[in-house]
Amino acid sequence: MSSDIAAILAIDGIASGAIYVLIAIGFVLIFAVTRVIFVPFGDISAFTALTLAALETQRLPGTMGLVALLAVMATVMQVTADLQAGDHKAIPSTLFFYLLVPLVPVALMWFAAGTVMSMPVRMGLSLLLVLPIAPLLDRIVFRPIADASVLLLLTVSMALHFALVGLGLMFFGPEGVRTQPLTDASWEIAGMQVSLQTFLIVGSAVVFSALLYGFFELTLTGKALRATAVNRTGARLVGIRPAYTGTMAYVLASVLAGISGILISPVTTIFYDSGFLFGLRAFVGAIIGAMVNYPVTALGALLVGVLESFASFWSSAFKEVIVFSLLLPVLLWRSLSVGEVEDEAEE
Amino acid sequence: MSKIQFRYLTLAALLLLVTSPLYLNPFSMTLLNYIGVYGLVALGLVLLTGIGGMMSFGQAAFVGIGAYAGAWASALQGYSPWVGLMLAIVLSCSVALFLGAITLRLGGHFLALSTVAWGLSIFFLFGNLDGLGNYNGIANVPPISIGPLKLVASWQMFYLIWAIVLLALLASRNLLDSRSGRAMRALRGGNLLVESLGINAFATRLATFVMAALFAGLSGWLYAHLNRFVSPAPFEVHVGIDYLMMAMVGGATELIGAFIGSALVTLTKNSIQDYLPLIAKGASGQLEIVVFSIVFIVLLQRWRGGLISISSHLLPSPHHEIDGQVAPLSRRPLPHRDETLLTVDQVERRFGGLVAVDKVSFTLKAGEILGLIGPNGAGKSTMFNLLTGALRPNSGQVVFQGRDITHSPQRTIAKAGIARTFQHVKIRPKMTLLDNVLLGTHPRTRSGFFNGAFRLDRKEEAQARAEALRQLQRVGLGDKPFELAGNLPLGNQRVLEIARALAADPVLLVLDEPAAGLRRQEKQALAELLQSLRSENLTILLVEHDMEFVMGLVDRIVVMNFGCKICEGLPADVRQDPHVQDAYLGGLV
User: Fold this and answer.
1) pTM
2) Is the confidence metric ipTM above 0.85 for this complex?
3) Nearest CA-CA distance, residue A103 and chain B, Å
């Protein structure tokens, strides 16, 4: 392999690694606050890409149906819960938050259908449309079992992923999509053509990670989220509602997933079921960061991107084998460096 | 349900199963075959997840290894299917050994997620290896033959499959009721207790993992010869999740849950395939997955323990006859009275900048009771953890019976004869009192997995049971040995811990606040017990806050404050010591 090829592969790898960084950080965020390993997270990313592609060709995106379906389900569940608790006064706010708010972007999309939109508007709308999915799923699936063990939550999360992939096929169809490039411009650096798009991808990953960091460090809501992550009971005692911080975590993470979907859609062809593999690759990064450490997670995700890019050059058939086998030495290193861990008592 | 009723019911169910080819049509027989094949994988998962507390999404990969081993050996290489069976067993076990060695030290969810990763890797390998037919797979797998008889019809395969299934079920049941099985059941809830009992937690996890992989590999081999065609698709990760669903929906805490789950999932899938097209015309295979996943989520939301949890009261409660006449387990020789047993020399332990134990030295003589006291935060529990190997000192030396144990792991120290109890009681609440105490006998007994599974351990097991019952009686809990430990009040749980420690036949008993939570009479009984143990030449080190209890019982006292030893001596002298009064009364006297 010449150094030119190596450089190109490295740049490619860093670009896709940057996208995995966003997903991996989202994984860590949701896990830390809710203890749910949200496997369908990659699917949210893929659905954003599919939504964007639909808007580009002036079609109605399948996301509308999905969001509407989830909003109705969540509303029915919450209203039933309100009624059972005898809390009739809560019903208007339930209707507002669970039905009206998620349906706003759907309605917007409905009215804007068929019009030609500029690229930033399309991106904004797609992002807005996928935002409600994860919080609604949280209400429907995870809140009834919020106190269950991590492993039970993980199993449910896996099942949810398969339900979503199935729904994805119904709402988006089997075709793969690839959106227009963000920009065609490219620069020559040290004798190599590097597209501006690569810079945009890496730049956005850096900017949004930094924004998230600022949010956690500087805002009260961010601190509440961190508090919940450290100790749920303690957070409750000082007046933080875990259900609220959970929803916040899902919304924030969905922003990350949405952005990663927008960034990845011009780079590779996306199918309704592409999300799982993105998610898993990002997940390898998250494990390198032990599901708690954001900077190490980001580095890990970058490493996965670079490795993937080199692996597909060496042997595209064994690309996935190589990437997922990477996890084994990482785990070995983790298990040797962490030493014996005392599991949470799950009896 | 009584034990007799349960026996008859089991017998009736077996009879119904054995005669099923007489009244079931071939299609139903095929379904029954698949229930058995899938149930075998789920059985491994019950052992792994429900019993051992490790979750695997990757079992489908082991099924694949077994299936490909069978198909490759018989269809491509022309060997007998039985050679394929050997290959399937060897391969699935050795791959499991390798993967387990790398991953099984990890905690709960990391382990679970790593299984997704290797599950995917192995799946992609099947699809990309030329020698295994890539994504097209291997066709024309020959049937299994026994002598001249070829097992082609579904009823013929039925007998082979269910013979293997019943054998696996029986072996697993036996195993759980043996020394190694108890170690497996103790894994859930953390390593600290397990290691303090002299059990190698990692080796036990690894053995459990290999066993689950073996069942999956066997299932794969059966699958290859049942289906007569092997391709990568049935070994994808989402199938691995189907297997997990079977175990969890059926109930992962009971072995039979695996087959309830397997039957439920197989039949539900079958009827979704049958009825879904009637409800939704032109429904695709994807809709099946959606419906199936939703059913699964709702089931787990409603019954976290699986279906068996609804009917678990129907299962007979565990009960064993205990033969009191059996020869006792051999005991280790105790040291002579007043011989130096334990020397703690300049031991120091720091946590970051905090010096929890600061160059503390003391000695312990055989046959005495030494009290370790001090205000909260004095470093007593840290000292305890240093002695028992739960923590390592930064400097200093601990010598036990002439042997340096400063850096020995917990289980080595446990085996050397130091048995401990915990300040925060660590018992296994879902196990009976007897089983909890039996855990203590682990280092005194030998039987391994194989002996346990095939009941070659009964003599030793009877000895161990008699010993455990004797210790239960000794601490005053002998009247209900088959009660679940979790049902005891906290005070009695502490006493149970002492019985468990005694079952290990220790030289030194290390008790962390044994009287906390006991009522007055119970404290008195405990003091009498400890005194009688001392009269048998057992050495006891105890941390305690209850001064009345300590002063009346111990021979000598060591007082710690802020990590340092401030005084050592007879109870009466210690009471008069100005440093001690200072430490306890805050310097006002």
Assistant:
1) 0.85
2) no
3) 23
